[in-house]
Predict the structure.
Amino acid sequence: MTRCAAIETADLTFGYRRGVTVIDGLTQAIRGGEVTAITGRSGSGKSTLLYLLAGMLTPWSGSVVFDGSDLAKMDDHARSRLRAETFGFVFQDAALDPRRSVLDAVLEPTLYASQPSAKARDRALALLDLMGVDVPPESRPGEISGGQAQRVGVARALLLDPQVIFADEPTGNLDNASSEAVLGALTAAAEGGCTVIIATHDDRVVSRSTGRITVA
Amino acid sequence: MKPRTLFREAWATAVAARGFSWFFGLIVLAAVVVVELLAGQAEAQRQEVAAVFSRAEYRTAEVIDGQGLGVIPWDTVQRARQISAVTSAWAASAAFEVHGTAIPERGVVSARQFTGDWKDLPISLTTGRFPAGPNEALVDEATAATLGVDPSGGAVMSPDGREWALVGTFVPLHGRAPSMVIVPATADTQVRSISFTVSRLSQLDSTASLVVSLTDATSPAVLTVDRSMDARRLDSAVSGTVAEFGLTIVVTTMATSAVVLTLLSAMMVHTRRQEFGRRRALGATRSDVLALVLLHGTIIVAIAGLLGLTVGAAVNWLQFGVMPSPALLGATLSTAVCGSAIAQIPAALIAGYRDPVRILRTP
């Protein structure tokens, strides 16, 4: 069981180009152990906010506080450690290495968290089973469907029992069955104490989330 | 990432990215083979040059009392012979004229009196024997023909009426060997020169100085040291030119390979940018990504380099009969590994410092 981790932003401001603000003075508290949806129209900055909360972007001003620490004040190495050991990621397009096996993809977080992959192997296989990925673990991403690939991506995010899972449009390209599988797994993770933050424009995701941030 | 994990992941990546690994490896292999073959060829040429200049002709010098001061005692030749670098030594008088006694009108030729061990002389006896007394002489085959003398019974005579019976013919072994007519020295003969041969060309200058110091000359300037003056200089020049040429080709090959590897690495990083973005998002540090790129290439270079060295050594042995020195092999491999690592640094920095968010959001 993971512990509930809250994230707070204060006067968060960011843009990719000077003078063009994408997130402007956002102050928000994200409760731990909930599924929080970041919504907004296309190009409004949903993914940008997600990456700011994950410490992958450095805000122009304001703060992102996780577990009492301001991510903006951490150096790159410390933020990388945080992502490796505390956060999980689900990308929009699964982002699996086409040359590595499905099992390798699920085990990838162990590389950066300095955990032995041998121990995590059983859990990886169990997660693949739980996510309904019924293909041999040696299969390459090119041999599975997009829905299965996204489920593999979710399994990868869940592998190390992260405190927070960030998901960027996880159901964007999926059929209903795959969307349900992905959402079910993320919801179950939140019920287990994990904070799940999803950037989405999918109403199904919004309807199942307990928290919501709308970016203009 | 832990070093072991890093190495395993780099190896797994090298295996997974077979196309790039093969291409990268083949370039390194080709560069190492070319470098080694050039080095082998240069070494073979250097050995060939060294063999030429190690001939006795180039290892022989003559200390000459050109002014006829009589400052070279006869026993100098024995003392010179005791110098460890000297393999043979002989002393000679000034040249004087002789003519054949049978047909004097055939002309005159030069003769010199010699002392020292006859077997030390760089000549090959073709008929007869060495002189056993002061009135016997040897004549080289060409001179015998010129004079029309018969070594089995002929004789030569000096203008002052002194006569030497010819007891054998010889051929000089090289350009600095005695020629024409040679006769034994007598007690009243004034030594004009001492010739000596050393075991190595590099010993010639120092040995010449030693031999000069054995004479009664009050100043080394009164004696002349005659030798193949350019031999050593030419040897160094030729060896230097060969080495310079080889080095130029090697550096050019290495530099070209480095440029190709730099571009190839940059292409590799560009085609794998999504992978590096994903790795960074999942927690890889910049240094992890940087090390992964460098280690990936270094593993390939090390394997390809070792293979290249083996192939190069085998071809060198078969083609030139030369086995490159372990130092050269080690230097080639080290240079290849270090050079390729340096060549990959720009690509590794690009991979490590690219903004992962931009990469992940760019299709």
Remarks:
- Chain B touches chain A through 25 residues (CB under 8 Å).
- Chain B has ten helices and eleven strands.
- The two ends of chain B are 28 Å apart (CA to CA).
- The mean pLDDT of chain B is 86.
